[in-house]
Specification:
With 280 residues, this protein is of the alpha+beta class. It has one domain: Double-stranded beta-helix (4-Layer Sandwich). It contains seven helices and 13 strands. It is globular. It binds succinic acid.
Length: 280
Amino acid sequence: MHIERIAGALGAELTGLDLTRALTDGELDDLRAAVVEHKVVFLRNQPYAIEHLERLTEQFGGRGTTPFLRAIEGHPGVVKVVKEAHETGLNFGGAWHSDWSFQPEPPSFTLLWSVDVPPFGGDTMWSNQELAFRTLSDGLQDTLRGLRVVHSAGWAYAADGILARTANGRSMQIDTTDDALREQVHPAVPVHPVSGNEALFVNPTYTVRFDGWSAADSAPLLQHLYTHSTRDAFTCRFRWTPNTLAIWDNRSTQHNALNDYRGHRRELHRTTVAGGSPTR
Ligand code: SIN
């Protein structure tokens, strides 16, 4: 396996693996280690088949729970992330977030495999949340180590959430419901179960407030953290080509899908891998 970094902060392209067959234990260990180290990895020229995505998801640890999004029929956990050429509204994933951070056990990894990509635009960005934490001042790091954060899917997926209010004309199958208002508390700075590194675990899509603080009291510090954690210097940006698989570590990154390809179609298939309860 050959690894070539694509940015200073995170991200690497990997060559030398063939995902049309099951990986050996050794290959799997190397791939998993590369994802944890580089936080997001990209494998181009991997012919897509839903069975390949499902097999690799199983090999990585089994699929996580996918709320709100309808799976492809007969393929539980596999979601078609699609925006048709005629759609002019919001795109799915078009704001900084870590996948399903509002779950009691958020996913460890996400796999996203490109099927159809626009001739320009539609890139995805990732941001390194370990680097974001390390570059805060010592005093704020210490404060955050003692804080817990409330997450919920409400802003996005509640019955009157942003995805419900912008549903008109959207081809993606999203079920919005007030179940999304359920809240979940996690440490603000969990320790990664494999690397042992601390990472900031707040994001503007699913974080609601600090535990024990009002939303108003939380807002200034959260806004500071959102701005800091997605600074250019902590990010990478990936230009998709068809048949490319991205795998990222949700415990150490946020990501954001850019919506700059109006008039063109974009389709990728996504699974998440079951994770654990963030701890420190
Ligand atoms: C997502 O947030 O999972 C979607 C990312 C993308 O479409 O690039």
